[in-house]
Each structure stands twice: as structure tokens, then as C-alpha cells.
User: Fold this.
Amino acid sequence: MLRPRGRPAHMLRHRTGVGVLTLAAVALYVTYAVSRLTRFRAATYDLVIFDQAVRSYSRFEPGLAPVKGVHNDFGPDFSVLGDHFSPILAVLAPLYWVHDRPIMLVVAQAVLIAAAIPFVWVFANRLLGPLAAYLASGAFALSWQVQSAIAFDFHEVAFAVPLVAVAMERFQAARYWHATIAAGVLLLVKEDMGFLVAGLGVLLMWRARRRLHGLGLVVAGLAMVWLTTQVLMPLAGGRPGYYWQYEDLGGSPGEALRFMVTNPLETLALIVTPETKLHTLLWLFVPLAFCALVSPYLLPALPLLAERLLASNPNWWTTWPHYNAFVVVLLFCAGIDGAARVARWVGRTSARRRRVVHVGWAAFTLAAAVVSVGHFPFGNLTHDTWWPESGRQRAAATAVATIPDGATVEVLNNLGPALTGRCAVRLLDRTPRDAPWVITDTRIRTFPFRTLAEQRGRLGVLERDGYRRVWSGQGYVVLHRSGS
Assistant:
């Protein structure tokens, strides 16, 4: 755990408390993630994508994810570096030398996200004192953004959360080169992290008056966004513009920039319409009592928020799945700093009044986080239906056990994680893949089918193509065709 600059003894007194909080968070995250995985609630998209990529890295291959490549028509030898620039995933490869299963990824994500808690505590302790720091870091641990990330199986955001926490805590401690190193590693997490790094550079210029240093981060961050999206990802098999989702702004980054400069009011209106975007913004700032809005620490989060809210893809506007976790540390740090500023304004002549504001704000954030549990994934842990194994889940286990080791199988979205460690998994979609084994479902629609009727129709096509039913139960159907 990091020691606040010049205050080692003070930090040591709280090491046990912060450690217990962090370990409790790990236990909660692992419990939720593993219960999803073992009850067939995890998804082929995206858990199997990352599983195949990390397995490939563990074999000293270039992060191949056939399930992604085949479904999205890139081909079976597609590297995830062509989808998102996340070479940092390779550091997880040794886990697969220990146990070659996706459970390693969900446990790793739980540990990585919880690793941010001590840095959030240190950041809060410097500004608000230890009691408020415990409350605020507890609120962070239970925040709906973290819940949503844990509930979406595994993503590269697992690395972003602790790295941003390190960068912000080191910035606050005036260890600017330490913060710069953390920012540099962030560039290996995802291609758009350059926007966050550029925001950190602006913060460095403004708050620390380190203009050249900050300008270097701005240039490096923006240059890395261009380099990864226009050069490195295409070299890895991706397509330039594959994730361009800004049709309302223009057909290219240049057109979008011109639109935003020449139409600022329309751009601002686009950030809050439709209503889903405003709903997400309220969920981001209300649990922090809007204090984040008065802090310069909000700056690095703004490019990532704009990146999502200006997009034409509705999936990017919501409180689900994991996108908000990229900014959760920034928002909490901004909220902590903002609360300290409000306390100074309110209690200019009274230290007691400042402490009341500090603790009151932190208690509010923790209460908001606890309330959010009922509306977000961790609330499932309190439901009686979450834990017992249902008839459908027993049938799913039987269907999965029917597939022989080493087989190539087209499989439902929720069953792929159970097979990926011992089979060549392909996602069952609308296109015939000629795999010798298929598992489908006649009862519940799964991604990527648009309707249950369409999914059932796929079964009819398979049977007409010579597949025979090997087993069926509770809606699940296992099919096999010799010679495929």
C-alpha cells in the first residue's frame, strides 16, 4: 500500500483497515462473478473472446480469438489487437499456465478492480480525513459502475480502474512522473485511453503548472489514439473506422471535429438527448452529490464521457454494461476533491464544520452506493432464485457434458464459457458454420438472434442440413453431424 508523502506512521495505522476493506471487496466480486459463471449466466460475448485471446498469449501466439473473428467475418485467425488495442492482456497469460479456464479472468478482474481501493482511500484521506476516506472508498467499492463491470464477466477495464487510481493518487501526491508512468501503461489498455491521458495532461498544465510535461501527455495521448486506430489495429487485422459510431457528427474524425466547432449548441444538445443519456449522467453525478462538477479532477473523464454520449450507438449511453467503470475512479476523485472545496467554502472559520461536511458527504456517497445495489447487479445476490440450481441449469450442464473434448462446437451465448477450456467454441448465430456439434435452445432467445422464432428457425435449418438430435431437455437441443 502506498504511504502518503511525509506521513508514513499515519498510513501504517490504517493499513489493516484498508486491507480488510479491499479483501472484502475481492471476496464480494469473486462471489458474484463465479456464481454467474457456474450458473451459466456468463456470456460467450465477451468472456470467451478474452479467454481465447489470453489462452493464445499463454501459448506465445498473437492473441487469437476465433469466436470473434468468425462471428464478425474477420476469419478464425483474428487477433483481438485488431478489435481493441489491449496488449496489456498478455500479462494475464501466466494465469493460464496454472489453470486454463475463464474463471481465472473473472477472479483476476475482481482482484485488479479491488486493487484501486487503497489508492482511493489515500486520495480521500489526504483531503477528508480517515473516517471519510473509509466511507468514500467503501462507496467506491460498491459503486454501480464497479458492479456493472464485475457483472459483465471480463473486460480490459479491469486494468484501467487500478491504473487510473494510481495515476490520480500519484498526481495528488505531486509525484508527477509516477503518474506519467501509470498514464503510459494506460495506453496499453485500450485505444481510446489516449483521450484520458490527454485529459491528465491538461490537468497537469492547469493544476501543477507543468506546461511542457502536460503538453507532452496531451500530444502523446492524442497521437496514440491515431496510431492505434489508424495503423496498429489495421495491421493486426482490424478495419479502420470499424467502430466509428458518430454519424450524427459526420463520417470521419475530421468531419466530426468540424461539426463540433461550428455547431457547439447542437453538440451540447446531443450530449443530453435522448433521455437515456441524461439518465446516465444523473446516475454518474447524483451519488456524488454533484461535488465532482466543481473539481478540476473531472477533466480527464470528460473526453471519455463525450466519446460515448456523442455516439449514435445506444449501447454506449446506458448505465450498462462496463463503460462507466473507465471513469469511476476519476469521478470519485473529483467528488472527493469537490467535497473538500465545498467544505472550505462552508467552513471557512470552523474546522468542525469542515469535518461535518467531509464525513457527511462521504456518508451520503456510501448510502447512495448501498441503495444502488438494489438497482444493479449485486442485488441479485439477495434473491432466493440466484443460488439454487434450476432445472434449466442442470439441463445446460448435461448439454455441455454431451460435447466431446477437442470438438468444434457452435454454442449458445450463455454456454460458451463452460466449453471454451476444452473445445473450439464458435458462437451460434444466423450464419451456418458447419461445426460438427451445435447446442441451441427452443425456449429462450439468446444473443445474437433478434427473436426466439429466428433462433428456432436456425434449428430447423440445421436439421434439414443433416444434423441429428443427440440430446434435448428443458428447451436445450444438442445436435451432431458426422463428417462436418
In short: The chain has a mean pLDDT of 95. Strands lie at 408-411, 424-427, 437-441, 468-473, 476-480.
